[in-house]
């Protein structure tokens, strides 16, 4: 891999599909050395690496279990040791589980959602900020369901995404003197292979939206790129919802 010191380092969790894949592609094209994690999709991760490297750009995937914080922190430390500090951290990995009857929820469900949607964010931030340069960037990816729970089927998901709001705001203050910005992007319905715009819930979701159409993964990546750029220097502690007006 290219060790050119002029290339900034970007670390993205959950980078092989949907929003995460587009984030990897966008920041590689923006001349970042991109490191991304994935849980199981080794074939997709390898294909993404090759796709980007064939363009003369830099990306490397790492298989990590987000429920094992020591794996995440060790990975970040090893990247910092070999390639230097992480300039941009994007916490994108997460799980979203429908539960038709909340009476079936148990502590294992609670722990799984908290571990992946919250604890992993805490761990990556703690590891990255030890060496993150002044004016670094942290972007957390949440959900518009952190603001408004449209139904009772995603109790734990909404809980964890709401918690990200408080964490993001507090960390913005904690890191402000170092001019490190911390922001939260809250996507609404975004068209992906796992969330097509013709699924059984699509018309129901569109009924709440001012713009009755699903967003694109590029919409999220473009906003993240703006926050990571010099144009985003003065934006921190912000919760930016991008959902076609669903929560308006």
Structure, explained:
This protein is α/β, with parallel strands linked by helices. The protein has a single domain, classed as NAD(P)-binding Rossmann-like Domain (Rossmann fold), CATH 3.40.50.720. A 7-stranded parallel sheet has the order 3-2-1-4-5-6-7, sandwiched between helices. Helix 3 runs parallel beside helix 4 and helix 4 packs parallel to helix 5. The longest helix is centred in the middle third of the chain and has 23 residues. It is globular, with a radius of gyration of 17 Å. It starts with 7 loop residues before the first strand and ends in a 6-residue tail after the last strand. The N terminus is likely disordered.
């Amino acid at each position: 891999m290219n060790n050119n010191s002029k290339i900034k380092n970007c670390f993205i969790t959950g980078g092989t599909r949907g929003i995460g894949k587009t984030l990897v592609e966008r920041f590689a094209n923006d001349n970042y050395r991109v490191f991304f994690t994935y849980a199981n999709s080794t074939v997709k991760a390898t294909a993404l690496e090759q796709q980007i490297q064939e363009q003369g750009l830099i990306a490397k995937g790492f298989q990590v279990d987000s429920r094992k914080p020591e794996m995440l922190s060790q990975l970040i430390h090893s990247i910092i040791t070999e390639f230097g500090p992480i300039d941009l951290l994007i916490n994108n990995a997460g799980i979203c589980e429908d539960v038709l009857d909340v009476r079936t929820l148990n502590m294992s469900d609670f722990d799984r959602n908290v571990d992946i949607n919250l604890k992993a964010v805490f761990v990556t931030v703690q590891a990255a900020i030890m060496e993150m340069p002044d004016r670094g960037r942290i972007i957390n990816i949440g959900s518009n369901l952190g603001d408004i729970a449209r139904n009772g089927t995603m109790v734990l998901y909404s809980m964890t995404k709401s918690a990200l709001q408080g964490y993001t705001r507090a960390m913005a203050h904690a890191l402000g003197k170092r001019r490190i910005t911390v922001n939260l992007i809250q996507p609404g319905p975004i068209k992906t292979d796992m969330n097509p715009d013709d699924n059984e819930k699509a018309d129901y979701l569109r009924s709440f939206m001012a713009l009755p159409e699903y967003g694109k993964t590029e919409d999220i990546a473009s906003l993240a790129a703006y926050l990571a750029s010099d144009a985003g220097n003065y934006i921190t502690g912000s919760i930016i919802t991008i959902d076609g007006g669903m929560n308006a």
